[in-house]
Specification:
The chain is an all-alpha fold. The chain has one domain (17-80). Helices cover 68% and strands 0% of the residues.
Length: 84
């Protein structure tokens, strides 16, 4: 995960009422990013552009898993016992 200096951070996404709204906003932001990239680069669309976007999404997912979900699950295992 790239770490950005605190002074350069802006919340990209506001809080939404539900996960559908959140998913819509994420998708819209990704499509806007790709659209701007194609216009700025003046290059034809390539699979690499889409693969890069999907890769970023996957890395964000993994970072959320590592930072938020794993500690939560470890806490629950200690509290309630492991399934295995």
């Amino acid at each position: 995960m790239p770490y950005i200096p605190q002074k350069d951070r802006e919340p990209a996404i506001d809080m939404f009422a539900d996960s559908g709204d959140f998913a819509f906003k994420l998708t819209d932001d990704i499509l806007e990013h790709l659209s701007q990239r194609f216009q700025l680069d003046s290059t034809p669309r390539r699979f690499q552009h889409y693969a890069s976007a999907v890769g970023v999404i996957e890395l964000v997912k993994l970072e959320l898993w590592r930072r938020l979900i794993v500690p939560y699950e470890e806490e629950k295992i200690k509290k309630d016992g492991d399934v295995f």
